Amino acid sequence: MKFTMQRSALALALLGASAGAIKVDFTSDDSIKAGASTIAYGLVKYYNGNETGQVPGTLPQPYYWWETGAVFTTLIDYWAQTGDNTYNALTSQGLLFQVGQGNDFLPANETLSEANDDQGVWALAALAAAENGLAGSQPSWQELAKNVFNEFVARWDPKCGGGLRWQIAAVNAGYNYKNSAANGVFFDLAARLFQQTNNNTYSQWATKVFEWEQKAGLISDSYQVFDGVMVESCSKVDKMQTSMSTALFLDGSAVMYNATSSSDWKTRVDGLVKDVQATFVKDGVLYESACEGEALCTVDQQSFKSFLIRSLKATTQQAPYTAATIQPLLQSTAQAAAHSCSGSVDKKEFAGQPGTACGFSWVGNAAFDGKAGVGEQMNALSALTALLSKAPRSQIFPSNSSNSTSSAGPTQPSKTSGSGTPSVSPKSPGNKVAANLLTALAVFGGVAYGLC
């Protein structure tokens, strides 16, 4: 009996040693990577698409299809920042399963309900795969993104002077709404394809989308990015602001500045960064201003900060002069995010390492706020990896490369080269996937530390 009690006490001690809040030494890249690995493990435990009988590229309820694309972008960024390719196989598998018959991220199981912003999130995931050299796609990741771009061009709508509608299908509620999320993914897609290919048609479309947003009143003179307009009343702007929409326009603007050195794009970058500080920062950390204060954020909105963090990190690389302003914010946000990863919840809500569920709100350096989920894990993972050094995005594919435009037709970009040359150097392809797509997830050890 005494021996049994001692053994039980030892087991409890070992459990306590392996569980608990994530603690990170932010002066050590290795410590940041260790913390990120635990958060990534907790994130992927929400995903079962790589399991027998499940559908690759989908998350269980209550998460919508678009958010799996966002998860894959986050995991690609995690791999690129840390060198840990544990999740590359399931990422490739999920992305490729959802490309659809037209190689355009319009899979049969989502086509009827899919919106332009949904499709665009997946296209941006494919671009992230291209930019970081993720193996496994035929046609190429870039080709998949180009196909989506071509479809966006074809859907450009004359109501309200241009822009993409929120919904693709006319029968869906929201077809009469033009939102910044849909036009933001189009803009970011065009900007990054321009940087990759030096094809001026992409640059022209990036400029066209941004200027339409301004003319429609969706980007204000002070670079606030508003939600959208109804096509029946184009002058009535819904002035809700979300960090995701702002992130998309900041990311693309920084890319365009890097690719062109244009003073116009610098002005836009500066204005958007200033608005981030004014709208999405509270107590020195990132904050979802539209809903966080009242604890009314939807499941979708709970993942938006991940987009903004990655955008801010990319901006410091595409426009290095912004680092002095942005880096302290990323640092304080990462510290607060790590502090929030101390939650203990039911395994049905969080199956990661006990005591390491990440919370949503980071204001006041708060501990775990009781909210656990995919968005919360994505946000925290992006926050930590944003502090690691990664080569900036670059022109991987020259305009005369075999990875050129995907199909002929009226929406096909021309072969004309752009006038601007990216100022960053081409980056290496990165680590290749060596694991089979059915490789089981490795469990990390203990560490120190529908869109609206």
What this model shows, in words?
The protein has 452 residues and is mainly α. It has a single domain (26-385), classed as Glycosyltransferase. 46% of the residues lie in helices and 4% in strands. The protein contains 13 helices and 5 strands. It has helices at 2-18, 29-44, 65-82, 88-97, 116-132, 141-155, 180-197, 200-215, 243-260, 263-279, 304-318, 323-340, 374-385, and strands at residues 177-179, 228-230, 233-238, 281-282, 285-286. The strands form 2 sheets. Strands 1-2-3 form a 3-stranded antiparallel β-sheet. It has a two-stranded antiparallel sheet with strand order 4-5. A hairpin with a 2-residue loop joins strand 4 (281-282) and strand 5 (285-286). Helix 2 (29-44) packs antiparallel against helix 3 and helix 3 packs parallel to helix 13. The radius of gyration is 21 Å and the shape is globular. The chain starts with a helix and ends in a 67-residue tail after the last helix.
Topology:
Layout: H1 2-18, H2 29-44, H3 65-82, H4 88-97, H5 116-132, H6 141-155, E1 177-179, H7 180-197, H8 200-215, E2 228-230, E3 233-238, H9 243-260, H10 263-279, E4 281-282, E5 285-286, H11 304-318, H12 323-340, H13 374-385
Antiparallel strand pairs: 1-2, 2-3, 4-5
Region (Disordered): 397-429
Catalytic activity: Random hydrolysis of (1->6)-alpha-D-mannosidic linkages in unbranched (1->6)-mannans
Keywords: Glycoprotein, Glycosidase, Hydrolase, Membrane, Signal
Key traits:
disordered N terminus; Glycosyltransferase; 452 residues; 5 strands; 3-stranded antiparallel β-sheet; 46% helix; two-stranded antiparallel sheet; mainly alpha
